[in-house]
Amino acid sequence: MIVKAKKHLGQHFLHDENIAQKIVASLDGTHYPNVLEVGPGTGVLTKYLLDRSVTLSLAEIDEESIAYLKETYPPITEETFVGDFLRLDIEGNFDSEVGVIGNFPYNISSQILFKIIDNYRKIPEMVGMFQKEVAERTAAKPRQKSYGILSVLVQAYYDVEYLFTVNENVFTPPPKVKSGVIKLTRNPKEALTGIEDLFKKIVKAGFNQRRKKLSNALKIMRIPQSMASHPFLDCRAEELNVEDFIQFSIEWRNSCEG
């Protein structure tokens, strides 16, 4: 049985076994019982995950891939599949923590990362392959060109490690850009408790007008009068690190409560 990559699903099937093994080996997987692979495709990662002492679930929406995986790997049954990752109720589907891994569909890269941070309490670790640009954005630091909303929001909940770059020629069909593999290890900033929504609003508003100082970019949120002379307002969003944004959000909340 042959599985054809479908453009509308953002499928690019990895066919390099060494890279597949390297990705799977990067997932620690020793301190939680479940692993969820997103977009298994033809099973190049799946075959190595099946060798592990974990309960494996697969998030796949391509019926052709589902049929192929069940036919090729007998341990996989209908019950292994959990449907569309972006619609999956992770809290309801998993009683305990679950590591996430995948050669992720390129057309939903950002949505996958936001889904993971929305479920950080259940997901202690993720290893995944994205377009190189998305991988770099996720791992970026202040003042780097690729530093932005994605960088700050992911790094507020996870330590991010850029593992390695993958060339186009190891995929079928080859994508037009290089790929990057990153690892997320949960490390939520405790100071976020009680200010998560405000923090996210400030980060998004700041980067939506990234060339402007925060004094202008945050006008839409009505800056508290008591913070009018705050030194961070004289900075651009790209100059602040995660801890700066958290501290700024705490002071904003305190000003509103005072």
Automatic annotation (TrEMBL):
Q: Where does the Ribosomal RNA adenine methylase transferase N-terminal domain lie?
A: 19-188
Q: What domain of life does the UniProt record list for this protein's source?
A: Bacteria
List the subcellular locations.
Answer: Cytoplasm
Residues annotated for S-adenosyl-L-methionine binding in this entry: 12, 14, 39, 60, 84, 103
- Say where the protein is mainly found: cytoplasm
| Keyword terms | Cytoplasm, Methyltransferase, RNA-binding, rRNA processing, S-adenosyl-L-methionine, Transferase
Q: Which reaction does it catalyse?
A: adenosine(1518)/adenosine(1519) in 16S rRNA + 4 S-adenosyl-L-methionine = N(6)-dimethyladenosine(1518)/N(6)-dimethyladenosine(1519) in 16S rRNA + 4 S-adenosyl-L-homocysteine + 4 H(+)
The molecular function terms in GO held by this entry are:
16S rRNA (adenine(1518)-N(6)/adenine(1519)-N(6))-dimethyltransferase activity; RNA binding
Q: Give the enzyme's EC designation.
A: 2.1.1.182
Record HAMAP family: 16SrRNA_methyltr_A (MF_00607)
Q: What is this protein called?
A: Ribosomal RNA small subunit methyltransferase A
Annotated organism of origin: Riemerella columbipharyngis
